[in-house]
Amino acid sequence: MRFAIRLMRNRALTWSAALMFVTASVLVGLFVTVKAFALTAQQVDERDLGRFDARVELATPEPPDLAGVRRAGGRDITVTLSSTDVRPSVVDPPVTRYLEADWGVTPFPARFALTSGRWPRHAGEAVVTAATGSSLAVPHGTLRVVGTVRDSYSGWNTILAAPGTFATIRGEGVSATTTVYWNGPASAGAALAGTVVARDTRHPRSWIERNPLVHRIPALALPVLTVLAISGLTGAWSRRTRTLLHSVGVRQTYAVGVAATASTLVWTALGIGAGIGIGLLVRTILARDRAEPFSPVPDLLPPTAQLLLVTSLACGVYFRRGTRAAGPAARRYLAVLLVGAVAFAITRSDGVTGAMVVTALVGAVVLLLVPDLVPRLAGLLPERDPRLRLGARRLRDRGASAVVVLTAALTPALALMTLLATDLAHQEASVVPDAPSGQVIVSGRAGIGHPPPDDVLAAVRTRITGQGVRTGFLPRQRLLVVDSPDDVSALDHRALTPTELESLRSGRFVPFTDPSWRSYANGVVLAAHTTNAAPSAVVFTDVPDDIARAAQQAVADARLGHSFVLVHRPPEPAVLPTSLYAVAIGPALLAVLTAAAVAGTRARTSRDHATVLTAVGVGKRWIQQLLLLESGVTTAISLGLALLVALPPMALAGVAVRVPWGHVGLLAAGCALAVLVAGSRPQVGGPCSTAGLVPARRGPRSAGR
Fold first, then answer.
1. Membrane-crossing residues (predicted)?
2. Same-domain check for residues 181 and 97
3. Main-chain dihedrals φ then ψ at residue 300, nearest 5 degrees
């Protein structure tokens, strides 16, 4: 062991093993950060159940029969009414949660906290999260605001009202659901017609927990690949050290593997500590602008123990084997088998989950073939310059391990970026304006297939003149019905072709070209050819924007409710939750730091080469250019392979991919900058392969000395 301890002092081994510090710190920091966005089961119960054991949600606001619940053992029963229709009577009201309960019994002590005033006690009283005065106008009534409250689990606008309040504002366009809470056995809810949710109910996992690319796959793959990179970077040192130990009569050459393993595990432990600190710091920063609470700091023993175990096993495999080639034939056979698995997975994959499986399999194939690909790609470098020739030779000899670990680090980042960009594109494509430009659609609350209430239509007519286009609707065929072809032209903002006119006159339907109308109906047909169309929306055309807004305001001023009057408004850009951005930033940061660590380690472990080149008169700038060339080519190859792994498998798995080339370019620029900073400082000095490895032999000097 004393030889192993001495070997651990070697600078080449130390800086190579430091790669594990970067991997461990980012993996643990990412785990601590992303777990903050996944609420624990206890937090979900605090949010949804309050202080109760179970609940049942009913579809109507009618009072339920609670006798059966009591007979089955239910006690401390509380009934609430909830609605998203009770909003401030303004144009474009904020999304609002209305909750009516007996607040004197404190049903949700961990969720709602009174910040001023008092809890509502009488019908018509309410507390709100955003106070605008002593009263609040809502559809069909006015609430008296008696205080303000903080909702710890939501950033929505919230109204908490006293029992009986909903009955005073109930009307057209306002609905609610009833929820019964109780303490006692969950089976007591069998007396009610609804699904029982209890504290032992298994809650669905969040997207972060379901996506293995976020942490599970990197936590298993990156430590193994990092150890592989360390093994490759220290290969020459390992061979020379074993030879040196044999030459001085030491047969315990396993000390080299022990030293490499111990050094790697020390850096892993240091990285775990740094990762915990990084994760806690990031959580603190993100918590400042977040309405919902973070989950508590997770139990760190399982992920850190897994990280240490995987690293130890990888060290045992690679460092015990020394630097011998790892069976290229077996590796290629395994790659062929995995190609078959990829083909099978493509035929069975469906959606994002299948795409991730295909991506993982393709990644395994590519990584298995990297030792064959890198020498061929390095051979493509032009040989007109000595730096290119030497760099190509060094890449053929020692570049595969670095490419493997960089490709593995870049792939999750690129895959997650692409998944998020694709999801964002799908959201943007699915969101269209509520009404075409220049049109006002007045309908029932349930949609354009229902006629508007008379008082709503009367309020709109106080601002808009003209009769409008009265329509019908065929719900089974999703067809709009109008009286004439002129109505079709007015609704679709275009002149009809002769073929379309002939289709309408012969009783066939014509599809809409306007995206807003396409979202409501498959097409339009004339009323003369239908007999069972139900009355539906009234559409006013050629309405200026200010008049359209005035029509909405007239309905709001009359406190008739929301969603009756639709006007043209460009859709707001889609926004992803902060947690998903954090999930993408973590792997991207890992990729950049890994690129820096690989480049820096290659520079430090090239001390022997730099010393020899300096001894023959090569300048430091020339050596810097050589190192940057090696690291740049390594990064470029890794980025290309990562794109090959991350993008095509998603398309093959049936996902309509949108590549965020801007973000890909930013990631590539970050890696290039990291390589430039970390990989351009050659270490020049005495031979690092022998210095400090074995104590110098002390004996009588030769006679000639």
1. 213-233, 254-280, 300-319, 331-349, 355-378, 399-421, 579-599, 626-647, 659-679
2. yes
3. -90, -5
